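Entry 14. Two folds queued back to back today. First construct below, sequence then structure tokens.
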Amino acid sequence: MPEPRVALLTREYPPDVYGGAGVHVEYLARELARLVDVTVHAWGDVRRATPPGGPAVVSYRPWDALAGPEAFRAALEALSIDLAVAAGTGGANLVHSHTWYANLAGHLAGLCHGIPHVATVHSLEPMRPWKAEQLGGGYAVSSFAERTGLEGADAVIAVSAGMRSDLLRCYPAIEPERVCVIHNGIDTDEYRPDSETDALEHYGIDPQRPTVVFVGRITRQKGLGHLLDAAELIDPSAQLVLAAGSPDTPEIAAETAAQIERLGRTRDGVTWLPDRLSRPELIQILSHASVFVCPSVYEPLGIVNLEAMACEAAVVATDTGGIPEVVEDGVTGLLVPIEARDDGSHEPVDPAAFARALATRINMLVGDEETARALGRAGRRRAVAHFSWPSIAERTVELYRGLL
């Protein structure tokens, strides 16, 4: 059996990481490089240096001819990179793609070079209809790229059992035996409680005051608007820290800014951090959170919950997607029920009731520091025991070897 020579295909890779899929690839690539020959093929400018012992990185830029103001051009730019990546992976004997941005590249590389294609599913385009706001007609293009890449893959990795169920429902042409579950992971040596307060002080966060923290992109999926609605009902003794940036569209950026401005008129201690935090800053803020909130309406797993748990923050999160596979209700945090609309948006049928349920669970932990701390400690134990990157990489390599 030949040893795997893996081309790992991704849009995001350091220093250009803005979401959970990028975090996943960053850490998976590091661990895979300890086990097999791996080269990362990523979007962006040429990476001048890679971490010692890390994988080689090849960088790609979209075709200049596709640049333009129309929203659909972003999807076409992705396809131009897919073509270049497919041509550039000839030295591999297996390709592994992540997200729709790279799934078509993996499919084409498999066809061009006669090698297996593994695709990891972090989310699904049919489950995110709001992306039409962001991409316009490009949403149909992204959906085509994802469907073609996944239906043609030799194996598909779902990051949660919930994600696997969604995948098989959205794409019934994919045989169930081609789909396995390998969870996202967390580096619990890096993500661990930090008792220092310099980052908090830098951003004007009071270390002595109860703190409710949100971390995520400004997108419909992450449910920030619902948390801002809930904030009117959250115990006024608590401060609210919103590490929220990378809006999908100018419209949702303006909508969120207006909502935060209105909230600031009715309560103090609202801190909005729209720029990306450094990892040490994020870890320190999570470590001092009385409650970490994940109000997502759609979440295949949610690496950010693992990051919070590893830092011993109690989690309040929506009971949806893969979140219940990470957050144990009443053990590592509290789950918030949601009755989603049946129009594909995943938005709650009764947004006001969902906001009240969020606020109720947040207030339970803000008002009970002992319970919050106990949930936080249990969360770190669970993160250490079940979500280590080395074990995830070993399972991934086992899958590779079964295809060669």
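Second construct, same run, same settings:
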Amino acid sequence: MYHIQTATKKIAFLAMMLAMITVLSMLEHMLLPLPFLPPNVRLGLSNIITMYALFFLGKGSAFLLAVLKSVFIILTRGLTAGFLSFSGGIFALLCIILLSAVFRHHISYLALSVCGAIAHNTGQMLAASIITNTNLLMFYLPVMIFFGVVMGCVTGTLLKAVMPMFGHILKSAKSEKEDRL
């Protein structure tokens, strides 16, 4: 019975995180592009949740959230947008996992966020090149890399700011579990 409650809590927590991802994704899509940003540059706020899942819940949870986010985008914005989201999300997660493995505890969340944002943009540009069957889109990649660094700094800083909130939620769940024992 205890194991079922623990699994249920994890599913509920992941569902809450998926809800946050979908809300942040919708808000970003609904907001008009900021005048100083080039086309298709977004903050990537939903990636904060995915990064948190990767760092504190594990690779499986992070990949699940990235895939479900892409499914949500397919349902709301179409197959092309979903494919771009999936490509960027998977590239970003793979990059962060690789860097985390190579540098272990010697790399900051900020650096991982920046590298993840660059990988996300690169994955999306590669996917867009596949869709359009041209490499001309890669000329836009330096612009996307530059803004990946900028937006990666923003999301990395926000991740650091919200980590205590998520930590509090997880500690509350842990203390409830200990109270039952």
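Quick look at the second one. Residues 34 and 42 are 9 Å apart (CA to CA). The helical segments are 2-30, 46-56, 59-77, 79-103, 109-132, 141-180.
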